[in-house]
Design goal:
Chain lengths: 515, 255
């Protein structure tokens, strides 16, 4: 008998096995008193509060979140683009200069990229105090480094023969670079830029959950005080904004694909600059304190002996093991849940229901999902994994459906006429052709989940995130520094593994079989 | 066996069919010919149930094709022009797709882990004229001719009573054309094991091959313009069929 080889479509579903231990632990942690709270919570969804004062406050919070996201996104796109250009080998090669400055910039960008925006937010909060621009900076710093990496990868993967040809025609190095590298970069600027704006909105909401203002703060306060009707008023507003943004960006991407000449890189960059200016002005109107100068309050730098002491005190093995377990369980849920749902219910109506559910999961920041689950459950690593997995399943589900909608129906039709059942036909005719790109995105999402373990760790009392918040609240700076370094190293290692997996899945099946 | 009764199709995406009535009888080999856009592929799609006619019905032994239970539906097999193999899977796993009509979802999932019923796959591979050592290869590594034979092996695995083949010979070199046609017309084994009862309908873009078939059906602009034994078709008939179409196209005003 042939040795079993897990094929790509099966690999999309197999991680669902992780749900078994997670649900067992979550089931054991259920407490009866929570069901009544859950019932009131669900009632709030259909009867949200319409108190004008509350709605005014929520509307202001929503505007703060949107303005923060807009400025953070705009700044990070502009800075990331510049850093991406300067960290690409092609730029330096075109000017016939050694490429070591590019390598140096890339190394410097690894640290800001490895630290989650929430951690940046908490650190900046300690250093700068509560100020509206702290949230903007917390988004801008890691996002710039992430955008820079994507643009650098794209620039370095562009065919260099065109650049060589332009240089040989006598053009100066900058002119040759802009004219030969610029046009192929435009579609990426459009599609990836749009994607980052959605991420920025999610990040701005999340930062609000941790006290940095906006709709996130409102949601956190109402949920913690069990005022579910008020919570749902805010959540419905946030869902509306997210859906409008997603649909707007999808429409924009579609227009760009059908009429690529309409949008060029310069007009997109102009729009980005405008977003920063408008968003900044908006933020200042909403929060007049945003115009005040930032006060720098640097914490004392820990000395060597304090670092050594902290290194021996901290339970490294347990923290890292919990973080890895949390990552793997959440990633398994995020990857397997959407295809499993569509496999069990392959109909069109079910697809629409799932799309609605996934929007809700995506919009709700993981700490709030975790708090919701905690209404009827005891805190555990499994519950934190479930919260993180559900939020990311919302992202993966939408991506899967988008991919399936764009896919040619040929294979599905061919399988259907063999008289296969609807589930078999969906498995082989729909999921299979999509499986490799889905797994490639799953690898990237796992990398994101590793960064986000920090977020649920803070609430769920597990992993490096929990230890970090403990150290921050006790001003144990030596421990804070060591945990940040450890987390950064972990995420960089995770990024490297996820890159390798992504490349593997993006190769054609024959190529990967032969390697 | 299969009857198209006054079938019409008015669709923006597919060529139209106008009041087509035909019967495919057991044991026949039928060549479906006609110029591009005549409606040949549309007719096959209606016959296998993947397309619903605007009016009229396609009946399989008296039951509308759309209402056939799974057990009956698998008796109609299709060889697609674009093959539609599952690129992510191996040759054996693709061949097993032909057996899905007789198997459960669990079986389909297990087949994704390790190709099941390898002996049956081997037999189908042999019937399709492909080397058996290719069974574990990914289909993306195969040549065009080999891929065509995997699609054929999938059809053998389905064990249909009626085979509908949509231009299976396009993009193949002449030697391969004869070879594939021999395999296809050697009569597909049926679910009853009776190899003589099989009916094969092949869409052809090359009218020079019609003498290999019992019967020829010609379509033009969605109408059946010829339905006769292949021996009675003359070169003049074919000239008229294709010339009338090209003249029609030339005469049509430019949009």
């Amino acid at each position: 008998m042939k040795r079993p080889v897990v094929s790509a479509p099966l690999l999309c579903l197999l991680p669902a096995l992780a749900l078994v231990p997670v649900l067992i632990v979550v089931g054991e942690g259920l407490h009866g008193g929570g069901f009544e709270t859950w019932w009131r919570f669900l009632q709030g969804a259909v009867q949200p509060s319409k108190d004008p004062l509350l709605l005014k406050s929520l509307w202001e919070g929503l505007q703060v979140t949107l303005a923060t996201a807009l400025v953070g996104w705009g700044l990070s796109t502009l800075i990331g683009l510049l850093l991406g250009v300067f960290s690409s080998d092609v730029l330096w090669e075109s000017a016939k200069i050694p490429t070591w400055p590019a390598a140096a910039i890339r190394s410097l960008l690894a640290l800001p990229r490895a630290i989650h925006e929430l951690l940046w937010g908490l650190l900046l909060l300690q250093v700068l105090g509560l100020h509206p621009w702290v949230a903007v900076a917390a988004i801008t710093i890691p996002y710039s480094a992430l955008v820079a990496r994507v643009f650098r990868d794209q620039i370095d993967s562009i065919d260099r023969r065109r650049l060589t040809a332009v240089l040989q025609s006598g053009a100066s190095a900058p002119a040759a670079f802009v004219s030969s590298i610029g046009p192929p970069l435009q579609p990426i600027l459009l599609s990836y830029g749009g994607y980052r704006l959605e991420c920025a909105l999610r990040s701005a909401t999340l930062l609000g959950v941790f006290g940095l203002g906006g709709i996130g703060t409102e949601l956190q306060l109402t949920l913690q005080s069990l005022r579910f009707a008020e919570f749902w008023s805010g959540l419905w507003l946030l869902i509306l904004l997210s859906v409008l943004l997603e649909q707007g960006l999808t429409f924009w991407r579609h227009r760009q694909q059908t009429n690529p000449s309409q949008w060029n890189g310069v007009s997109v960059l102009t729009m980005t600059v405008l977003a920063v200016l408008v968003g900044g002005h908006w933020l200042q109107q909403l929060l007049p304190t945003s115009g005040t100068t930032l006060q720098l309050m640097l914490p004392p730098l820990p000395d060597i002996s304090a670092l050594q002491l902290a290194a021996t005190e901290l339970p490294w093995l347990r923290m890292i093991e919990q973080t890895m377990r949390l990552t793997l369980l959440a990633a398994a849920i995020a990857i397997a849940l959407p295809p499993l749902c569509l496999l069990i219910f392959p109909g069109r109506i079910a697809k629409q229901v799932f799309l609605g559910l996934w929007t809700l999961q995506r919009v709700l920041p993981p700490p709030l999902t975790l708090l919701m689950l905690l209404l009827a459950n005891l805190p555990s690593l499994a519950l934190a994994a479930l919260a993180l997995g559900l939020q990311n399943a919302g992202v993966m589900g939408r991506l899967l459906v988008e991919g399936l909608d764009q896919q040619s129906p040929g294979t599905m039709k061919a399988i259907e006429v063999t008289a296969a059942g609807p589930r078999q036909a969906w498995l082989l005719g729909c999921l299979s052709p999509q499986s490799r790109s889905y797994l490639a995105y799953g690898a990237y999402r796992t990398d994101v989940i590793l960064r986000e373990t920090l977020v649920v760790g803070l609430v769920g009392g597990t992993g490096l995130g929990w230890m970090l918040i403990e150290s921050l609240s006790s001003f144990h700076w030596a421990a804070v520094l060591l945990i940040i370094v450890c987390f950064a190293l972990l995420t960089l290692a995770g990024e490297s593994i996820s890159d390798g997996l992504r490349q593997r899945w993006l190769r054609t099946p024959g190529e990967s079989a032969s390697t | 066996m299969l009857e198209l009764r006054d079938v019409c199709l008015t669709s923006r995406d597919s060529p139209r069919l106008n009041h087509v009535s035909l019967t495919f009888r057991a044991g026949e080999t039928i060549a479906l010919i006609g110029p591009s856009g005549a409606g040949k592929s549309t007719l096959l799609s209606i016959a296998n149930g993947s397309l619903k006619p605007s009016s009229g019905t396609a009946l399989w032994q008296g039951t509308p094709v759309h209402q056939l239970p799974r057990r009956q539906r698998r008796r109609i097999g299709t060889l697609w022009q674009d093959l539609h193999l599952v690129e992510e899977l191996s040759v054996a796993q693709n061949i097993n797709c032909g057996a899905l009509g007789r198997r459960s979802l669990l079986w389909a999932l297990a087949n994704l882990l390790v190709p099941l019923e390898r002996d049956a796959c081997m037999t189908c591979l042999k019937q399709a004229g492909l080397q058996q050592d290719l069974i574990d290869r990914s289909v993306t590594t195969l040549s065009g001719g080999q891929r065509q034979r995997v699609a054929l092996a999938r059809l053998f695995r389905q064990r249909p009573d009626l085979v509908l083949a949509d231009e299976p010979l396009s993009n193949l070199d002449p030697a391969l054309v004869q070879d594939l046609l021999n395999t296809l017309l050697r009569q597909t084994p049926t679910s009853a094991g009776d190899i003589l009862a099989s009916t094969t309908v092949v869409c052809l873009h090359r009218p020079d091959l019609i003498d290999r078939f019992d019967r020829v059906i010609a379509l033009r602009d969605g109408h059946v313009v010829m339905d006769a034994p292949s021996a009675s078709i003359t070169t003049k008939d074919l000239d008229v069929l294709y010339r009338a179409s090209s003249e029609g196209r030339r005469a049509a005003p430019k949009p």
